[in-house]
Amino acid sequence: MKWLKIRNFNNWSIKSKLIFVFLGTSTIPLLLAFFIESLKDIHLLNSFIQEDIIVLGEIISSHSQAPLIFDDKKAADETLASLRINASVEMACLYKKNGSLLSHYSRHTLYEAPPFSQISKDKGVNISRQYYQLLSPVQVDNEVFGYIFIRTDRNRFYSTIELTIKISAIIIGCAFLLTLLLSSYLQNLISQPILHLVETVLSISNKKDYSIRAKKISNDEMGNLIDSFNFMLFEIQSRDEALEAYGAKLERDVENRTKELRMVNKELRKSKEKAEIANRAKSDFLASMSHEIRTPMNAIFGFTDLLKDMINDPLQKEYLKTIQASGKTLLSLINDVLDLSKIEAGKIEIQKNAMDLNALIKEIQQIFSLKVKEKDIEFKIHFDDKLAKYIILDEIRLRQVLINIVGNAIKFTENGFVKLNIEVTRKDEKAGTVDITFAVHDTGIGVQKEKINKIFEPFEQENNSVFVKYGGTGLGLTISNRLVRLMGGEDISVVSEQGKGSSFYAIFKNISFTDSISEKIDDIDIKKIIFEKTTLLIVDNHAENRMLVKGFLGNYDFHIIEANDGSQAIDITNLYNPDIILTDLQMPVMDGIEMTRYMKAHDTFKKIPIIVMTATVIKEHQKNIMDEGFDAIMTKPFNQHQLVKTFMQFLPHSNSNSKRNDMVQVTQNTKSPFVNTTDEDQISNGKALLDLIDQEFQQELKEIKERFFFREIETFAFKMKSVALSYQSNELYQWALTLYEQASQFNMEKLPKTLNQFSDVVQSIKMNIEK
Predict the structure, then answer these.
(1) Is the pLDDT of residue 306 over 80?
(2) Which residue, among 719, 724, 721, 567, has the nearest Cα to 658 in the 3D structure?
């Protein structure tokens, strides 16, 4: 039990422990007996005192009957005054039947008679910390005529208890001293042999001399322990002597082995130096041979291309094709050998950037299209819809791996198909990572199970007959496997059955992805873009940033107003009602987020597009910013092209190839979608618009109709207004304008009908083209 635990008891000496045990076993019973006896004395003493006060109450009660019956206060006072002879009585009171005080006695004048109502509930004897109190009725022939109240002090009780404690303490103290003397003598009988054994152990430990023996004092259990200890010392002494002899032999053996190892290490160092020299020589040789071979190869390819157009003889042309094919084979071999050399030397660099995987797969499909057509086999591609548009990998090396594996599959497949499958096995939207499996399946010659691992070794193929029939260097899979590992993927795995085909798997885990990358300058010439007259509010506390934006937009029809912070921007918006707002994120007084929350919460401002400028490039942070209500985000630093392209998403604009005045008339003329343009321009614009709708907007509209989010419908309508203006389509513009108004007003009744009218608008544009 926890309360019996003594701090550091295990660390006490055995002598102290024995004395403690003797004292404890003798003192605890004494204390327990004293405690029990004290409780009994207290109980008996309380009983005696209560009996005394009850007897005293009866005597006074019998002498108080006549004074109560005759209401004789003088006689009552004399009766109570007789209590002076009892020093313990502090106070006595005689109450009439109705509770009024008839007589009062007090040893000290300070004590006043308590009201009868205060003591009437405590009849009989009551004990408090300082007093015994008695309230007893005065009866004559069982009829109550009054009450007697007596209060005595507890001095007699406490003095008796004090005397008992003093006597008991003297007795216990004497018993404790006697026990201490006796235990000090008796503990030596037990502790002395143990202490002697401890001294022997310490002596052996310090001197390391196992010939020392402990002295046996008695024939009890302690004597048996010492005998066992001495026998153990004998065994240890014998073992040490044997170990000493064995150690000497081992030392001689180690010395001999060390000499041998020194000689082996010396030879290994020489071999290592030779290998390093040979490796450097190999690298130098490969670099030199690469240069020496590529130089004439350039001439071979160049002149064979020239000769192709100069020779008409079919046989000679066939010879030229053979020369070109052999040259390409030789060049491929050189590239493979150099790549393998770079990988082994650890000099190959992996550069991971955002890449369009879909575009890469289409490129690979194009590369092998002629080959599969020649072999009359099918090349299938399956692309997982869950895959993001861009992944972060080394595009060049991934292309090399896929070309190697797909090229092998096509080369070894005579009939059937080759399938490239790109599958997402895990996607974490929050972390922005994805697991991708690239699988290439074929119905080719297959590989024997026992030789699957062999095909990943340099210059190795399944067997010589494969080399004779299909050619190749035996380096493609070796290089591909090592490149996959360098890019963070797992080793390429193979499942194959000879004669039925093979499946190769390259697995990449935790690959970062994104749905968009930093926008590149594309084919759009922003200098030809014309915006309608627009009021732009720039909100930024840095004047140089505002000046930069004004510089970018100097050649456009923008009326620019400026604000230092969000608070000013709200005031200015109330006055000027701008068409679009470009704001910084962090500003004094009121930042961009607080300003946007305010504006989007008020009907007057919520339709104004707000574009935020920020320096953060972390995807999660940008998403949190957009969730605050911004319509677009621009990452600093940005250029003029990015700024104009962003404004084009929200502002009506046209291309300078069409007249600006024509664009303005589009918003006013309801008769024709092609205003003041030639027939040729109308047809061209109409066809381009239909192609754009078919490629980009039909699927988007289908998804919007399924989800039916007002914000998405409103954004889509705004986008279609811009498209309609760009391509001079009045029908599309009027439809988009109606859709925008209904979405912004949350018109649940008319919106579905308007969305379904999109096909009618497209049909109308087609009819105009035909006319």
Answers:
(1) no
(2) 724
Task: Specify if 519 maps to a domain.
Answer: no
Instruction: Give the domain range for residue 51.
Output: 13-209
> How far is the C-alpha of 631 from the C-alpha of 605, rounded, in Å?
13
DSSP assignment of 95-152 equals: EETTS-EEEEEESSTT--PPPHHHHTT--EEEE-SSEEEEEEEEEETTEEEEEEEEEE
The CATH number given to whatever domain includes residue 551 is: 3.40.50.2300
Q: What is the DSSP letter of 601?
A: T
pLDDT (tens digit, 9 = 90+) per residue, 470-501? 555 567 788 888 889 888 899 888 998 888 89
CA 170 to chain centre: 71
Residue 535 and residue 41: Cα distance in Å, rounded? 105
735 and 672 in one domain? Answer: yes
- Two structure tokens written together for 116: 């009868």
| Contacts of 419 by beta carbon, 8 Å cutoff, 6+ apart | 379, 380, 381, 382, 439, 440, 441, 442
Distances (CA, A) of 621 to 511, 540, 617, 625, 627: 19, 20, 8, 6, 10
509 and 546 part of one domain = no
Rounded to two decimals, the pTM is 0.35
Q: 334, 286 in Cβ contact below 8 A?
A: no
Q: Are residues 728 and 668 in the same domain?
A: yes
Cis bond upstream, residue 578 (ω within 30): no
CA pair distance 447, 449, nearest whole angstrom: 6
CA distance 753 to 272: 82
Same structural domain, 286 and 391: no
pLDDT, tens digit, 9 for 90 and up, residues 554-578: 788 899 898 889 988 998 898 788 9
